[in-house]
Give the backbone structure.
Amino acid sequence: MVRLPLFIGLGAVGILLLVDNAVITMMLWLAFISVFIAAMMRVRYLKQLEAQGVQVDEWAMQRRYVDALRSAWVLLPKSRKRHGLYMRMSNVIAHCLSELKCHEASAEAYDFLIDHLPLEGAGVKQLRVYRAISWLMEDRLADADDTLRHLRGVKSEFKGTALASAYTYAELLQCVKTYHFDEGVALSETLLNDMRPLGIEAGYTYAMMSTCYHEMVLRTEDEKEKARLEKEANKWWEYATCLIKEEHLMNRMPPEVMKQRS
């Protein structure tokens, strides 16, 4: 699109070299100028759309979810013919809805994205994991379990990537939501390395690991084991709060975690 005015100009110059009629020459110049102006306005409009998309992405990263969601909704219909931007805004909408605890709407948004992406690549698999997380938060445990079972191989196939980390987060969330805290504790051995690609977002996972250890304390009678488990629970909570403020943690965590910290 950026090179279109150049191609049009070269074509018009080529035609003008072959025509010596003044009226036709004038009409060709007028046509060329009109098309050139229209093309440049189109290029400018697309650049503005892309800049607005970058602004929405930044607001989402800055946790300004309401601003990002509002702007993404406005930008979505305008970007319908720009597939990449359209998918990005749809993803932002799904993410912001999830962060604002509108998990059912978030799952529907992920459904839309999954249905409209052409290939079953890593991107679609990651969206399926995010949808499973929204289902878990909505207590649609059977639907989430089916998805996570189907995607179990991603942890080894995409080891060291954000996709594998997101799957680990979903796996631990499932343990918390289904009260399988012993299975959650079993993930602790490799959790720090597994969650490294998520950066500070890993704090949410560490908070859930703390919950798993705390719940195991309540299920253990041996005093030495209780002390060890309590120490582990405090350690993982410290990891979580080093990355994310406690109020942000509590705002996003499932009720099972909030109950444990109250």
Notes: The chain has a mean pLDDT of 84.
